[in-house]
Write the structure tokens for this entry.
Amino acid sequence: MTTLKCEDLRCPACGKEGVLGQEAGPGSPALVCGACAERFPLRAGHPVLIPADNELFDRSAYERPGAAGIYRRRLLRLPGASVNLSQRRVLAGMGRALAAAGARRILIVGAGRQRHDIERDLGLPADAGVEILCCDVDVTADVDVYCDAHRLPFRDGHFDAVITTAVLEHVLYPEQVAGEIGRVTRVGGLLYSELPFLQSVHEGAYDFTRYTLSGHRRLFNAFDAVESGMVAGPGTALVWSLEHFAASLFGRGMPSKAARAGARLLFFWLKYFDYLLARSPTAMDSASCTYFYGRRRAGKVRDADIVAAYNGGLDIRHV
């Protein structure tokens, strides 16, 4: 169960901690910053901690009851395009480490509707007293807080662990978001991140960036690596490519969607090659998606050390 306290929050408008409070008056539907006086509405009891100057996400939209995000019911359920070689195993290990350390607070950034799946993968007992807090910018996500990850509304070092899967490719400034994740994670705290490399656009206009495993590693240079590797490999990347190649022959609309569905049904089985290629250095260089599991450190890892840690299939050195 998540208990969100105002003293645990940081105003995303002015950056001051412990200054958000319930607006005066009975049944008030907002939080107000005691420092800058910015007012943040509530949606179904959950605070919308998005500053008024946010260009992409108008917080007044969260006050409309009919607002529709990306999570809609699908009429046709196709086989998945991807495998996930890491999440359950790594999160189970994270859960054991957190339990052993008596850790209590976990943040899921860009949670979508993953809350129950991640709780299951962590495997923490119900009486462990762990609080899992979910945040997202999507209006229909299952969250405790609506916020933009560029300005996470939480105190420095508040969380024992942060989990973010397939999120940072959808933000404008990934290094800023990674910095925010590092800021809210205590020294010694844990991070699990997944990021795509060879994938086609999958969230329309909100799809900006891709990362190699080395790039993913450098993004979180405030963390020591526990382990990193492949979430999905070239088999999955091939399924994505074939599916979008088929769709590109028909432009937009139903013919394109039908072509994508047909390609998925014909070629989804290629993803299973990733289980055979999971430890291949060359396959890592053409992964569809990678993961990074790390521990928060006091300083930053040197770029030279990150470059030296590359273990892909290409032996290239410039000096």
